[in-house]
Amino acid sequence: MRDIHTTPRRTVLISGASVAGPALAFWLNRYGFAVTVVEKAGALRSGGYPIDVRGTALEVVRKMGILPRLRDAHIDLRRLTFLEGDGGEVASVNPHTVTGGVAGRDLEVRRGDLTDALYAAVRDDVEFLFDDSIETLDQSDQRGPSSPSSPSGHGVDVSFRGGGRRMYDMVFGADGLHSRTRELLFGPEEQFHRYLGYCFAGFTMRNTFGLSHETVMWNSPGRAAALYAVGDNDDVHAFLNFAHPEPPYDAFRNPEAQRDLVAAVFADAGWEVPGMLAAMRDADDLFFDAVSQIRMPRWSSGRAALVGDAAYAPSFLTGQGSSLALVGAYMLAGSLADHRDHTAGFAAYEHRTREFVTVNQDLVGEGDATLFPTTARALEQRNDMLRKLSAMPSGEGRAEGRTEGRTEGRAEGRPAHSALTLPEFMPMASCP
Q1: pLDDT tens for residues 75-104?
Q2: Residue 250 DSSP class
Q3: Starting from the edge strand earliest in sequence, which strands make up the sheet with 156-160, in order?
Q4: By the 8 A CB rule, do 172 and 14 touch?
Q5: What pLDDT is recorded for position 148?
Q6: Nearest-CA neighbor of 114 among 198, 160, 188, 54?
Q7: Percent helix, percent strand, percent coil in the chain, to nearest 5
Q8: How far apart are CA 152 and CA 285, in angstroms?
Q9: Cα dihedral 358, 364, 366, 371 sign
């Protein structure tokens, strides 16, 4: 058996401290790696919109020991109400009938609660570099200062935006949909970006609507406005989603252009939308982006690999972004623990994980049809379905929702979010 106390620990750098990054850091540290996480923000982002943890990802957080904490943070969303264009009610249903979640088992938590739990699980064992980011990567041999585990210089020479420079055995991009690490490794985002035909804006505003533990969604063809009250708080999460034929590239880096575009699209909308637009103008936490996916033929290059949204963003229409990040982090770290050679480890990661990723990304056609119909006919069909659902006794109905897709082959018959059974990996201390 290899003596891990005399063998230098392999050094790794992870870019991104949201979900995939700290989860990967947890497992790599568990398997004996020396881990550094670099994050461009000055601190962890607190609060944030609600996210789902389902199926296979629940087993990941259980293995990490953070499931009880997340259960305590669970958002008990009790009602989902859909409205006509004139503000009249279409139907009010149990959220699980639309989302495909399982009451009492699946989790919905604020994004910040998940990132806080992940950070707490690793902060004492992992080095974090906040307010910094990767500037360049050089995988050429014999470049830069050697690391203890790569004395010959075989590794990745990293220069940081803040001016530092280090050598690592491996580098991982966990830096999201618009990953800088992916761009450095594989080139421009456009070649992997799959635009799904929508844009959205999200922000918080005062809860002057008396909403509690519920979501209210207004629709007209190609447009949706939603207010999401995660509890009895003074604030609600506001979302404005709209169909757009092409990505509005001019708006992506210009907050004022984003506000102008959204205001123009919703200018004649009714219900509470005028007040939402006014709140958006003053919001200091506006988040605007295209609804899109990242689809790549491979997730690694040399000694570097991608995980989570950076490699396979599924879009929020699937409800599976955070779950894919958690599962991907577990699979990547475990595959490297199983293989001393990084090339074999990366190949195993892709082989074991890709089918699960693909079947979850393929859920998009179901989610958008339910939440964001783009034509008057599709909207009326959706509303008829919801009326029938609301008339059924509790537990009998379920929408043709986003997580009801089924997998092929070995995962046949299982919901997409549970399509992968986690393998048990051998910790490095037990590796020959």
Answers
A1: 888 889 999 999 999 999 887 666 655 656
A2: H
A3: 134-138, 156-160, 165-168
A4: yes
A5: 47
A6: 54
A7: 35, 25, 40
A8: 46
A9: positive
